[in-house]
Amino acid sequence: MTTPGIPSFSQHPNYRAYDVAIVGGATSGSAIAWFLASNPDFKGKVLVVERDPSLSYSATQASNNCMRQQFATEINIKIAQYAADFVKDFRKNLGCEDRDGIPDIPIRSFGYLYLADNEEFAGTLEEDQKLQAACGAGTRMVSAKEIAAKYPFFALDDIKAGSLNMVDEGAFDALGMVRSLRKKAQQHSVDYIHNEVTGINLNGNKIESITLKTGEVVSVGTVVNAAGTRAAQVSRLAGIDLPIEARRRYTFIFSVDEPLPQDLPLTIDPTGVHMRSYREKDYLVGCPPIGPDVAVDPDDFSYAEDIWNKKMLPVLQKRVPQFSTAKVTHSWMGHYEFNTFDHNAIIGPHTEVDNLMFCVGFSGHGSQQAPACGRGVAELITYGRFRTLDLSALSYARIAKNEPLVERAAISTVDLFADAMRLRDYATGASGYIGGDLLHLLAKSHPQYRVRALIRDAAKCEAVKKSFSQVQVVKGGLDDIDLIAQEARDADVILHLAATGHLKSVQTIHQALSSKPKGEKPPYWIQISGGSMLAAPELANKSRVSGTGSDAIYNDLSGIEAIRSLIKQHPSRAVDNYMLSIATNSPHVKTALVAPPIIYGQGRGPGNRRSIQIPELAKVTLQRRKGLQVGSGLSRWSNIHIQDLSQLLLRLVEKAVEDVEDDRIWGSNGLYLTGVRELSFGEISRRITAAAYDLKLLPNKEVDQVSGEEADKLLPHGSVLYGTNARGRALRAEAVLGWAPRKEDLEHEIPRVVTQEAHALGLQGKNPAAQL
């Protein structure tokens, strides 16, 4: 296959064995190939397998060709500085001779300008500027007045400050760079083929060969995964999960009637839209999608949303009034190879498969990071270590250890990053079971969110700080009313996940939010309710018999009025009633009340990872050496896995970030049951007992019946948590949030819980616990 400007590609390899096979021949793959082949210390043969030699559908082709040093981690700053040095002396660094067809790759240094519309974000930019300056970057903080003086075309009424660097920051020809790297690599005997890897064949912990789409099996010494948005698919061929997915990114080129009198720096607006000069009289604007930033198929290049009129144009016209006449000349949609773990590149070997290397996960920075990272991978292959720039902070080992390296200055996420700067999430209960798991998910899904968390215990404060660098810990408790009021006034979204019956803190939050000036964006408030909400009628019935069943099943979509009525009929549900009154009397405060049932599963937060109902029942069963159920064991609550609950809460947070004022989501309709499945408490007790028996920790599988009074003595709130009915269906979240549960059933969780509780009690089981 021959494509203009691209070296010719054969479909078949020249050899049956190669020392190095690189999967992916765009920017990072070609950088690795060049640095290997041009190094006299490397003596092997290199094969590059590329499915799209024209690069028509690659991230490189859709790149906005940008270069910057304004990062928040030292390693990313140093990588960017090397990239600038590499392209400024491009021909020399590639060992070029006259008339060899390799172009110069200059940097068009019109600069990068981050704009902050609040003091907190301005403070973050200042912290980052100090680190960048310490690394030798030319970034400086600029006031709104200084920005206006340098760029008088900006409208800056809402801007507090900015960070600006005019040295080696701007645009360069990324496509020209990769084409040149390919050409020079081929001149150094690297074999490029137009093909796909469809199999990775292992012998133990070592890759022996790869299988190509055309059927050939090629023996390999080392495999490098440089497959961009397809990196996860390639890794799965070796049985490895990789947190890489394709994410949509839009770019539009536009012209205006009256061009600006000077270059427009690449400007990152607080809305997440970025803009810059493109060619002489044209400009470029880019951004993520309007809605949630979700994974898409790497082959999906469609875009139906009217992102130009709905998102880009309003921002352009507001920030640069001269752009009111903007007219689109052309546009494209490309993909970022998005690292969902921490938005940073993954460089170097896998921790278990000895000869598998990664050079993936650049999350929008691949063109500028490929030179340093390609050189680093080539060094690892040739010498077994980094010799120039130590990239070990980006190793796969951090994923295996669950130790993210968060880069908060990732433009790939600046849409939510900017919203989150204004958002200033405020969370209570952050070190608890629910709050901790949600923090983990927020940090993984949106590390750009700025979260402030109220935590009373000093040790838990430190644990949260250590685990989540973007979370600002506020030391205090729910009785610190003045503190809560101040935090609520400063926040745009409140997550109250702590004590579900603490009415005073709820009243304080409401009063604080009500006192805020009514601006364009309303405050959002997500409140957790107690799991026994649906059991209120039984709890009010003094003659009830613990453990009996009930046919009453609530649903939060068509049956929402019945839930409202239930709450109103029981004044003991003080917080729930108060939240309903807010929905009626303060509609500008957008509320959501979430009622979990039995929650199961291992939490992922830095504090409490243990749920209550199932572990406590397992613990007492092991201590008594006999199973127990309350009464006849026919009562039942719905249940949900903690990770599914966190996903539901995350969807609500994302809707708040997007400022979706949908009455189906918030207010009087914002009542969310979260039950997914059901088991009777008798069935749960039998499964716990059977699992303990399988471990040889019980003499038999007998289950005792105990009264409600006895249950209260044996278990915390035993007659309520194991002897009532709270049956509900989570229909609203599926209908209005697009949420769906995905985790395993409670039945699969029970054996793990029994094993864990036995270990906590110092009991050693003799056999694996089986499922009933």
Note down, in words, how this protein is organized.
It is a single chain. The chain is an alpha/beta fold. It folds into three domains: 1-54 and 65-106 and 170-243 and 340-410, 3-Layer(bba) Sandwich (FAD/NAD(P)-binding domain), CATH 3.50.50.60; 107-169 and 247-339, D-Amino Acid Oxidase, subunit A, domain 2 (D-Amino Acid Oxidase, Chain A, domain 2, 2-Layer Sandwich); 424-760, NAD(P)-binding Rossmann-like Domain (Rossmann fold). Helices cover 34% and strands 21% of the residues. The protein has 25 helices and 33 strands. The strands form seven sheets. Strands 4, 5, 6, 12, 13, 14, 15, 16 and 17 form a nine-stranded mixed sheet that branches. Strand 14 (274-277) and strand 15 (282-287) form a beta hairpin. It is globular and about 95 Å long.
The strand count comes to 33
Put simply, the count of helices is: 25
CATH topology name of the largest domain: Rossmann fold
* Strand portion: 15-25%
What would you say about this model in short?
The protein is α/β, with parallel strands linked by helices and 772 residues long.
Task: From the structure above, extract its key features.
single chain, 772 residues, alpha/beta, FAD/NAD(P)-binding domain, D-Amino Acid Oxidase, Chain A, domain 2, Rossmann fold, 3 domains, 9-stranded mixed sheet, 8-stranded mixed sheet, 34% helix, disordered N terminus, disordered C terminus
Per-chain topology:
Elements: E1 17-23, H1 27-37, E2 46-50, E3 66-67, H2 74-88, H3 90-93, E4 112-116, H4 119-134, E5 140-143, H5 144-150, E6 161-165, E7 170-171, H6 174-187, E8 191-194, E9 197-203, E10 206-212, E11 217-225, H7 231-236, E12 244-255, E13 266-268, E14 274-277, E15 282-287, E16 295-296, H8 307-319, E17 327-339, E18 346-349, E19 356-360, H9 366-383, H10 397-400, H11 414-423, E20 425-428, H12 433-445, E21 451-455, H13 458-467, E22 471-475, H14 481-490, E23 493-496, H15 503-514, E24 524-528, H16 536-539, E25 554-555, H17 560-568, H18 574-585, E26 590-595, E27 598-600, H19 613-624, E28 627-630, E29 636-641, H20 642-657, E30 671-673, E31 677-680, H21 681-694, E32 703-706, H22 708-714, H23 718-721, E33 728-729, H24 732-737, H25 746-760
Parallel strand pairs: 1-2, 1-11, 2-8, 4-13, 11-19, 20-21, 20-23, 21-22, 23-24, 24-26, 25-33, 26-30, 27-29, 28-32
Antiparallel strand pairs: 3-7, 4-6, 5-6, 9-10, 10-11, 12-15, 12-16, 12-17, 13-14, 14-15, 18-19, 29-31
Helix pairs in contact: 1-6, 1-9, 2-9, 12-20, 14-15, 15-18, 19-21, 19-25, 21-25
